[in-house]
Amino acid sequence: MTMDSGLRDSCPECAAPVAPQDRFCEACGRNLRVQRTPVGGPVTARCACGGAEFDGEGFCARCGRARVAVRDRVEFVLPGVAGVSDRGRRRQRNEDSMAFGRVRGRGVAVVVCDGVASSERAEQASQTAVDTAVDVLLTGLQSGADAEAATADAVTAANGAVARLARPEAAEVAPSCTFVSAVVTDDSATVGWVGDSRAYLVAGTGAARLTTDDTWAAQLVAEGVLTEEEALTDRRAHVLSRWLGADAGAVEPQSVTFMVETPGLLVLCSDGLWNYVPEPEDLLAVLPRGVPPVEVARGLVDVALEAGGHDNITVVVIQLRGGNGS
Amino acid sequence: MGLEFGVEVFQNEYLPQGAGQVDAIVTVTAGGTGAPGREVEPAAAAEVVVIDTSGSMDYPPTKLAAAKRATAAAVDALRDGVRFAVVAGTDTARVVYPNGPGMEVAGPATRAAAKKAVNRLHADGGTAMGQWLLLADRLFAGQDAELRHAILLTDGENQHETPERLTEVLEHVAGGFTCDCRGVGTNWRVAELRRISEALLGSVDIVADPADLAEDFRSMAVAAMGKAVADVSLRLWTPEHAEVRFLKQAAPTLVDLTGWRVESAPRVGDYPTGAWAAGESRDYHLCVRVRPAGVGDRMLASRVSLVDPAGAVLGQGRVLAVWTDDVALSTRINAEVAQHTGQAELASAIREGLEARRAGDAERATARLGRAVRLAHETGNTDTARLLAGVVEVQDAPTGTVRLRRQVADADEMTLDTRSTVTRRIGRA
């Protein structure tokens, strides 16, 4: 599924004609300054029974079946930001989710979450988390809120929403997920994270990892117990020390804010990608050049698939303009 | 008017692959507690008291005397402004009060006049309850009242009318009014009164001692007048290829509503629930058969709405089906569903046991009543357990080991029979 991009001359909700300077659609009231990926993730237009009518809760008006999410391969494209999420070659389901949006004249907000495979309904956890968090971040962009504060609020809201999915009698498998977000304006970017989903910055000929994994292995590396190489192969490499979910308690993200001075790319990804290209220079070596963000994302997902695709792979690429305006 | 209804659904929505039966307990609670403007205006209510004056009511004469006192108590409990009438039933039916056509408006003078007319009644003649109900229905039809409630009292069998005729009458009058039925003494038939009360969405009970009648009538009239909204229907939407196997009221009493479905739109059926008081709560057991979907699919098996006569939705809930290959999920038993399934089985075990006992089949009676003792024990239905103990000697309740009692008072047996449909909810917060 691909979303169309570029400036609109018709309302995306009701198709009424709109002018580029309009802030709201005069026909249906939709906010035209905000464009975002669909809430609830990608869904089919038709039910398996052939019905095309769904009620407000997404149930087919004819056969009652819930609208099906088509998660195996998802592509979303908005101006200046694109994401690709793929089930990979080994997993039954794609439990990664991504959501992003753009507020005209303000900036872009992106969230990627990776459902924890050992928890139940992991894809519901990650989808709920990205939907909840991106709402908070987009609201923050519209009101001009501090990006780090908005990121912390987004994590609190997403953590609460995921925690509410848990069944009290099955606390040990409470739905849970990781979290990485970006809030990007013309001149600055804020990245926040919980868990082991990552963000990389690519500018000119250099690349840098912006996040540190919340895993037991990473903690041991930080304490000097393991080397980076040992940590990668250690069985605890992916054991999370922090996550979102009912058993996570109160969670505050780690975050980093930097000034955007030169054009470049911000890459948010789940471990389905970075397992194969852990170091910034590994990523740089395989990064497609001179193509729009969606091609970059597709290229990186292909790299992971060709390397084995052992896990779900999600990559969101954001173009940084470096003060040129977006 | 205009109560909000809360609808809560209790179920295990997870089904194993290929399964298509979805069970849910739907708890409906009428909101509010008689907030201003939410009461039905007194003029909008109508009450008919139907009193059996067949010859047997004179044996012993205390029966008719008690019935008169009870009718007086019910009349006294009517609010000023309520339309009312009193009907005397034999093998025909006649209006005892008012003298003129139609109904009278309750007030000090009319209440006194009605009681005077009731006092002059004497017992003579047969029993044809269908005639009584038809007259009540005609009286209600002349009134523009939202709440239409009747009390029917009898002491005997419906001897002067065929069961088929009664069935025809019930089909004709159902939906016209609600009716609570009371049997006095032990010469009436539980099954007969239950048919009437179920068709007319009311209760049925035994009043073994005529002395208790007055208080019973008073509380029925008060409860009927306390209803805040009338003619509420339960509306079920079900998907294509689905079938409502049954819809039963499961608490406070068991009432099978399945046969009362009226199609209101494609895939939509309405079931009458009668009138509701503010704060009143009832449980419904819904069983829907749907066409199984694939593992991982999620389906709306039914949308349950409460609707008023104009079709306005007063509350809504949904019953889901999710197919899974996770046995731990699909084998979970929902406590509410189990409780009400157990109580429905308890009621049928009691009825079958009593029937077998009457037919002289001691073996079957022992087995069914033993099963009932065990179910009453398991579902925590202590009232029913106590009534069962009047009919069987309980040796071990957990295993349902019982012995039939040789001497059983008719009143004990009939009380057990009538109250077998009174259910108990499991404790909820």
UniProtKB/TrEMBL annotation, chain A:
Pfam families: PP2C_2. It comes from the Bacteria. SMART domains: PP2C_SIG, PP2Cc. Residues 80-320 form the PPM-type phosphatase domain. SUPFAM superfamilies: PP2C-like. Coiled coil: none annotated. PANTHER family: PROTEIN PHOSPHATASE. GO terms for molecular function: protein serine/threonine phosphatase activity. CDD domains: PP2Cc. This is Serine/threonine protein phosphatase. InterPro entries: PP2C (IPR015655), PPM-type-like_dom_sf (IPR036457), PPM-type_phosphatase-like_dom (IPR001932). Signal peptide: none annotated.
From TrEMBL, chain B:
Residues 46-220 form the VWFA domain. InterPro entries: CLCR, VWA_3_C, VWF_A, vWFA_dom_sf. Gene3D superfamilies: 1.20.120.1690, 2.60.40.3670, von Willebrand factor, type A domain (3.40.50.410). PROSITE patterns: VWFA (PS50234). PANTHER family: CALCIUM-ACTIVATED CHLORIDE CHANNEL REGULATOR (PTHR10579), ZINC FINGER (C3HC4-TYPE RING FINGER) FAMILY PROTEIN (PTHR10579:SF43). This is VWA domain-containing protein. It comes from Saccharothrix syringae.
